[in-house]
Amino acid sequence: MKSKAIRLKIHQETANYRIPVSHQFRESYPLPPYSTVIGMIHYLCDFHEYHPMKLSIQGNYASTTSDFYTRYEFKNGMKYDDHRHNLNAEGMGISRGIGNIQLLVDVNLIVHIIPDNLDELETIYRALKYPREFPNLGRREDIANIHVDLVDIEKRELEKDVPVKNSFYIPREQINDDFNFLVKKDGGRRGTYYEINKNYSLVSTRRNQTERRWNRIQVLYASNFTLLEEGEFVFDEDNNPIFWPELSN
């Protein structure tokens, strides 16, 4: 049975999709995590609370390089000291220095979006087709050239093996015997497992503060694998495979 999804084809000259635990050297995920794409969508749609949706993210990049960035550091309770700090923020001391950042070069992405509320398809489509400002994905300066389409998608059983060249985030719960990954000598699957952010809820702490509690998705980042004959997979109308978490929230 066919249904509709929004498909984004995105090109970026450079991009950094920062891995949260990287600081001195800001490493990048190989593809934008779900939270980064959801943030862009919500900003352009002017959504002020989370609108549940499913995402499939695939793509590639030509190479990586590194660049400098201005790095700011501070510690809770660290009072400003004229000899130690560059900036005074209401009595808090902030140091400024230089750090390195990893950049992906010549990035091409395909993103499929299907909101839980199908009435929002047109709203999201128009917000991305006619954005209120030029989109960015990753850092503010990572400009994204986006081509937007409404496409048909459907699940079908394969009549022959289908090789896949693009890199994908494949939710871990979807990996089964219908995939043929290039297997390493130790028997593991060739690829990298990540636990990436999708969306968050605001929770109160014991100190009456509010913090973000992230919903994280376990995925395998993989490329150059095969979808096997008789397996069932979701494709769009141009035969692009789609892998998204079963739960959208």
From TrEMBL:
Keyword RNA-binding: no
Superkingdom to which the source organism belongs: Bacteria
InterPro entries cross-referenced by the UniProt entry: CRISPR-assoc_prot_Cas5, CRISPR-assoc_prot_Cas5_N, CRISPR-assoc_prot_Cas5_Tneap
Keywords: Antiviral defense
GO biological process, one term: maintenance of CRISPR repeat elements
Pfam families referenced in this protein's UniProt entry, alphabetically: Cas_Cas5d
Name this protein carries in UniProt: CRISPR-associated protein Cas5
